[in-house]
Amino acid sequence: MKTIDPHIHMSARTTDDYEAMAAAGVVAVIEPAFWLGQTRTNVGSFIDYYSSLIGWERFRAAQFGISHYCTIGLNSKEANNEALAEEVMDILPRFATKEGVVAIGEIGYDEQSDAEDKYFRAQLELARELDMLVMIHTPHRDKKKGTSRSMDVCLEHGLAANKVIVDHNNEETVKETLDRGFWAAFTLYPQTKMGNERMVDVVRQYGSERIICDSSADWGVSDPLAVPKVANLMAQRGIDQHHIQMTCYQNAINAYGQSGQFNETDWLNPAPIDQRTLFEDNSVLRGQDPRIDAVDAPVKDAATG
Amino acid sequence: MTEPPQPLELMQQWLRAQLSSDAWDWLSQTTIALENGGADRALYLAISLVPRKLGKAVLVLNADDLAAADAARSGWRPAGGSVDQAARMVLMLSATPGGEEFARRLEQLCITADVRETIAFYQGLPLYPEPERYVARAGEGVRTNMKSVFEAVAHHNPYPSEYFSVNAWNQLVLKAIFVGSVLNPIQGLDGRRNKDLAHKLIDYARLRWAASRAIAPELWRMLGRFADSGMRADLQRALASDVPAEREAAALALRECPHEDAAALLRTVPDINSNIELGRVSWETVCRDALIP
Question: Residue B241 CB: number of other CB atoms within 10 A?
Answer without folding.
Answer: 16
